[in-house]
TrEMBL record:
Keywords attached to this entry: Carbohydrate metabolism, Glucose metabolism, Isomerase, Magnesium, Metal-binding, Phosphoprotein
Enzyme class: isomerase
Record NCBIfam families: PRK07564.1-1
GO cellular component, one term: cytosol
Protein name: phosphoglucomutase (alpha-D-glucose-1,6-bisphosphate-dependent)
Reaction(s) catalysed (UniProt annotation): alpha-D-glucose 1-phosphate = alpha-D-glucose 6-phosphate; O-phospho-L-seryl-[protein] + alpha-D-glucose 1-phosphate = alpha-D-glucose 1,6-bisphosphate + L-seryl-[protein]; alpha-D-glucose 1,6-bisphosphate + L-seryl-[protein] = O-phospho-L-seryl-[protein] + alpha-D-glucose 6-phosphate
A biological process from GO: glucose metabolic process
Pfam families cross-referenced by the UniProt entry: PGM1_C_vert_fung (PF24947), PGM_PMM_I (PF02878), PGM_PMM_II (PF02879), PGM_PMM_III (PF02880), RNase_H (PF00075)
Family that this chain belongs to: Belongs to the phosphohexose mutase family.
Catalytic activity, EC: 5.4.2.2
Names of required cofactors: Mg(2+)
Segments forming domain RNase H type-1: 39-221
Length: 740
């Protein structure tokens, strides 16, 4: 419903209690009430309003029903203006007053008026903050009754939950769709594929069957989190497909991010904080959004982390044999922008609750416990001794806008004018929400052009990736960022209080982290690409900090990478340097790190949207070289005259040290006798075709060479890496799509 209009709800059907409400004596002891079977202290009341006739002949009335022949039951003619919405509001006001007088502390209001519920939970507060003006500037027509409603609710102090109509469970026949196999982080396909009839329905049913099916079959409570990155089809899929399917399958409680918005890091934390069974996240991460772009769905487990391969394999197996899915027949008309709870009644007697929660507040409160916000705020706003540290932040029109404004602007004092592209948009403003030098080039240009900007940061579509840029456009590679944080954990409140158990990196990430681990005599784990592989290490307290070269950094505070956490970690390091008189400059930190440990030059070449057959051909040719032992010991000479001798090659595999699970075929590695390393792999995050990633890294100890640009230093290395895989010959491409 549009809250800008004094619209009319349809005439209500008469409501009556159902069998799942139990009758018992409660407060006050002399009266009998209906109680919520799932929460016996909650008293149930039914409210209703109606209006018949037209114009001057309209007659409106309201009713309150507490039970058969109950002395509190009310059926009255409405005084004043005769409208249906006023009658619905008056019924609720009457019920709350009665409950307050009667000493009731927990109340379930059953009403079919979404308008009244919205006024009580969201719209009324918004109108009050806006001097009782609507979004279009007009006066709120129901100002007085809504003010009375809000006043009665506040005065009563009653914990109120809103309940809705009975829903009929419907079992729909379906046929399986090929290829619903989750990749590195969920299932990603073109948006139009997910919009095909039955496609999303099948995948959601498969997730429920595989992830929580045993609990549902035993009628045990299942509590899930839902939300997404705000891309096209998130709201529609939540309202029309996912919530109805979850309710019909017996999920007892759903927590949904306001407006369907939840960053992936926030979702991980909320799952852990509220001890939920898991979460369904609607995101294709850094992939573009829109009708003609990409959509994605992933499942996170009860530890807040991505589903491990064992579970994703089970989801895929379910999708291949699925013949039906459960949903509800009636449209739910869920208002995703209204914070509050609604309880539904199913035809099988179950009473699930859907709660719209703040997307930001829990996560923002948690961040405050992990970092010294006072020190960071002093850094950003300045002090008598130092000018403000000017930070420029881009949300790339993804999910991070609300988090940027609440945490960085409202709590840490960042000027809101320095928060750009901070409005979540369904198509990310037509851009590619991938924080790298190609897709965030405008951010780089801004910091290059304005020498007063000390640091810039960008986040991807779902908020788990970050890019950091120093003054004058100094690029901090994710590999170096991880190593710098690892070397400065003593500057970060979270590690000061919890200690450091170990470190980990994805295999393609440069070995800069290994140098820090060696210096600190700590273990450094090397895992396949995909954050899910860090989860077991963190749960077993083997790893406290980890990262990927693909702009992902995080710690064991949650079980996802966390873009804002990485920025706050860097700001903590900068704040500490400010306090002890060291240069408060990103480039200085990195240069000092290289001087201490040496530099790993690193680059990644992405060839996006290749034909799948081309990607397979490239990998097959590399496999032949390795299997036939045609690389080891071979001397290669580049056009520039540089010689390389291959010392070792393999197809990376991983044995999890916690559960012993074995993961194979994770990318070809070629290591040369000077320590140079080439890695080749096909990405698992694309929605179609194939993306070839070629990684090159090598070590340099001479500080005099540390300032050489990566592409210049690695030119002969890159030349050989591309020649060996034959990417130009097979694809015809003379340049990559993205260079990192």
């Amino acid at each position: 419903m549009n809250d800008d209009l004094d619209g009319q709800d349809p005439l209500p059907t008469k409501l009556s209690p159902e069998e799942h409400y139990i009758s018992s004596n409660h407060v006050p002891s002399t009266l009998t009430f209906y109680h919520d079977a799932s929460c016996p202290r909650r008293v149930m009341v039914y409210t209703d309003g109606s209006c018949n006739g037209a114009h001057d002949d309209r007659r409106a009335g309201y009713g309150v029903y507490w039970g058969p022949n109950h002395p509190w039951n009310v059926s009255e003619r409405l005084e004043g203006e005769q409208t249906n919405n006023r009658a619905e509001i008056e019924a609720v006001i009457c019920a709350i007053k009665q409950a307050h007088i009667g000493g009731i502390t927990h109340l379930g209001i059953v009403t079919d008026s979404k308008f009244t519920q919205n006024c009580a939970t969201e719209w009324g507060q918004r109108w009050a903050r806006n001097a009782w003006k609507l979004a279009n500037g007009e006066d709120a027509k129901l100002r007085e009754p809504v003010k009375r409603l809000l006043g009665v609710i506040a005065e009563s102090g009653i914990e109120i939950i809103w309940m809705s109509q009975m829903l009929t469970i419907d079992i729909k026949p379906t046929k399986s769709f090929p290829g619903q196999k989750p990749g590195t982080s969920g299932l990603r396909k073109p948006t139009k594929t997910f919009m095909e009839h039955g496609y999303t329905e099948n995948f959601i049913q498969s997730i429920l069957n595989a992830a929580v099916g045993q609990l549902l079959n035993k009628s045990q409570p299942v509590r899930l989190l839902l939300g997404g990155d705000g891309r096209y089809f998130v709201r529609e899929s939540l309202q029309s497909i996912i919530i109805p399917i979850c309710l019909a399958n017996g999920v007892s409680e759903l927590f949904v991010g306001q407006n369907g918005i939840l960053s992936t890091p926030a979702a991980s934390f909320i799952i852990r904080k509220h001890q939920l069974d898991g979460g369904i996240l609607l995101t294709a991460s850094h992939n573009p959004g829109g009708l003609n772009a990409d959509f994605g769905i992933k499942y996170n487990c009860g530890n807040g982390g991505p589903a491990p391969e064992k579970l994703t394999d089970a989801i895929f197996a379910q999708s291949e044999k699925l013949t039906s899915y459960k949903t509800v027949k009636e449209p739910l008309n869920i208002q995703l922008d209204c914070i509050g709870s609604t309880k539904y009644t199913l035809s099988n007697g179950q009473t699930p609750i859907v709660t719209i929660i703040s997307s930001v507040s829990d996560y923002a409160d948690y961040m405050r416990t992990l970092f010294d916000f006072d020190a960071i705020k002093t850094l950003l706003t300045g002090s008598n001794q130092r000018e403000p540290f000017k930070l420029l932040v881009s949300g790339l029109n993804g999910v991070m806008g609300p988090y940027i404004h609440e945490i960085l602007c409202n709590q840490l004092g960042l000027n809101s004018e320095l928060a750009i592209k901070s409005q979540p948009l369904e198509d990310f403003g037509g851009g590619h929400p991938d924080p790298n030098l190609t897709y965030a080039a405008d951010l780089v240009q801004m910091i290059v052009a304005d020498s007063s900007i000390a640091m810039a940061a960008a986040f991807d579509g779902d908020g788990d990736r970050n890019m950091l840029i120093g003054r004058h456009g100094f690029f901090v590679s994710p590999c170096d960022s991880l190593a710098v944080i690892a070397d400065n954990t003593d500057c970060i409140k979270y590690f000061q209080e919890n200690g450091v158990h170990g470190f980990a990196r994805s295999m393609p990430t440069s070995r800069a982290l290994n140098l820090v681990c060696k210096s600190r005599s700590m273990q450094c784990y090397e895992v396949p690409t995909g954050w899910k592989f860090f989860g077991n290490l963190m749960d077993a307290k083997l790893c406290s900090l980890c990262g990927e070269e693909s702009f992902g950094t995080g710690s064991d505070h949650i079980r996802e990478k966390d873009g804002l956490w990485a920025l706050l970690a860097w700001l903590s390091i900068l704040a500490k340097r400010s306090q002890i008189g060291l240069p408060v400059d990103v480039e200085s930190i990195v240069m000092e790190h290289w001087k201490k440990y040496g530099r790993y030059f690193f680059t990644r070449y992405d060839y996006e949207n290749c034909e799948s057959s081309q990607g397979d051909e490239i990998m097959n040719e590399l496999k032949k070289l390795i299997d036939n032992n045609r690389i080891s010991g071979h001397v290669y000479t580049t056009v520039s005259g540089r010689q390389f001798v291959c010392d070792f090659c393999d197809n990376f595999s991983y044995v999890d040290p916690v559960d012993g699970s074995h993961t194979t075929n994770q990318g070809f590695r070629l290591i040369f006798n000077d320590g140079t390393r080439f890695v080749y792999r096909l990405s698992g995050t694309g929605s179609s075709g194939a993306t070839l990633r070629v990684y090159v890294d090598t070590y340099e100890s001479d500080p005099a060479k540390h300032t050489i640009a990566s592409q210049e230093y690695l030119k002969p290395h890159i030349e050989l890496a591309l020649e060996l895989c034959g990417v130009t010959k097979i694809t015809g491409r003379i340049a990559p799509s993205v260079i990192t």
